[in-house]
Amino acid sequence: MRESPVWRNIHKEFRLNGVHYAFDELNEIGYSLIKEGEEFEIAMGDFILDWISDAPTLAAQTSGSTGTPKTILLQKSHMVNSALATGAYFSLSSGDSALLCLPSSGIAGKMMLVRAMVLGLNLDYEGPSSQPLSHQGKSYHFVAMVPLQLENSLNKLTNIKTLIVGGAPVSTSLKKQLHGLSTSVYETYGMTETITHIAVKQLNGKEEEVFTALPDVHISQDERNCLVIEASHISNSKIITNDIVELVRESQFKWLGRYDSIINSGGVKLFPEQIEQKISEIIEDRFFVYGIPDEQLGERLVLLIESENRDTSRLKEKIKNLTTLSKYEIPKEIFFMSNFEETQTGKILRSETIKKIT
Asked: Quick one: which of 246, 252, 193 has its CA closest to 217?
């Protein structure tokens, strides 16, 4: 008798909005979500039908926040392994409650569904928004958010035991607001290719400065000092990233920035992500720095802010007084705009946004 594929083993404690579904009932709920649901529910239904199909792989799209979006194939067995690794690391048990507030079109949303089915979580879901807890009075063991959602949920975080946040770096000012909270908040490192996170760092409590790789994840660097990931339980091959890191210990690294986002200004290499982390102490609105063409410098460092408040002179003075910034890291120009271009999951599309000023 042929053994059933591992992804078909739906945990008996799995609940979706309070209702248990066995494997042979997922087909009906999948079609129902597609036929009667809102846009975010249609994406959930599509994924559920993909998950229960006989195919051992399913397609997932990279975010496009750092390059051209592309479709890749993920092994369902690897997704199950990722869910088990997350459950073990965060001590999740069957029957624990969780909230899906991210779009299921992306890997983060897909994996919340997989974790629920594999680990036996009681998963609630709601439409993705920047304020996911605004209508929620429930308590949850486990939730995943992006930084903007976290920032807008600070007054309700006590309802969550463990929260993971990813998709973009967490600003210094937001980290400070997490001090003293009972919720354990972790920043994650990962991507679609790694089936979400392969490393985490706690933002409150222990307040770690480096990412620690999950068990069975081996890390190294290539000749560019970019992170190389080997994890046979989630990938059949090495994953070579464009993330420049500093290896601290065998399983720990400090993320410095993207290789493809380095700004060469007058021969000085600038890491936008490091500059943004320093400037985040004085800017509450969304912002980013970028290098635009310059005849003398090659690239000129500029600052873009998503805000209607346009007090440039006062902001320039604040930036100048930041002792953490070197003279090369001070933006040459500041631009304000009402809205940044972004992905469906709220990540800023920098190259698209910069076109508005160049």
From this structure: 252
Q: Which of 190, 187, 189, 145 is nearest to 170 (CA)?
A: 187
- Of 275, 325, 327, 324, give the one whose Cα is nearest residue 304: 275
The total number of residues written for the chain in this structure: 358
- The whole-angstrom distance between residue 187's C-alpha and the CA centroid of its chain comes to 8
Which tokens sit at 191?
A: 């991507």
- Shortest CA distance to 93 belongs to which of 6, 161, 18, 179? 161
pLDDT digits 0-9 by tens, 41-78: 999 999 999 999 999 999 988 765 445 678 899 999 99
Question: 283, 305 in Cβ contact below 8 A?
Answer: yes
Residue whose C-alpha is closest to residue 113's, from 33, 233, 216: 33
Cβ–Cβ under 8 Å, residues 324 and 357: no
CB-based contact 159:138 (threshold 8 Å): yes
Q: How far does CA 82 lie from the centroid of its chain?
A: 15
What is the C-alpha separation between 207 and 204, in angstroms, rounded?
5
Q: For residue 348, what are the contacts with CB-CB under 8 A and spacing of at least 6?
A: 65, 168, 286, 288, 340, 341, 342
What distance in Å separates the CA atoms of residue 339 and residue 349, rounded to the nearest whole number?
11
Residues 6+ apart with CB under 8 A from 111: 79, 82, 83, 86, 195, 196
Residue that has been written with the tokens 């199950």 in this structure: 80
Q: What are phi and psi of 317, to 5 degrees?
A: -65, -40
Phi, psi of 46 (to 5 degrees): -60, -45
Residue by residue, DSSP assigns 102-147 as S-TTSHHHHHHHHHHHHHT-EEEE----S-TTTT----EEEEEE-H
Tokens 């006989």 belong to residue: 54
Its pTM stands at 0.85
Collapse the DSSP code of 152 into the 3-class scheme (helix H, G, I; strand E, B; otherwise coil) and give the result: coil
Q: Tens of pLDDT along 261-301?
A: 899 999 898 999 999 989 988 898 889 999 999 988 999 99
The β-bridge partners of 73 are 59
Residues 292 and 300: their CA atoms lie apart, in Å, by 5
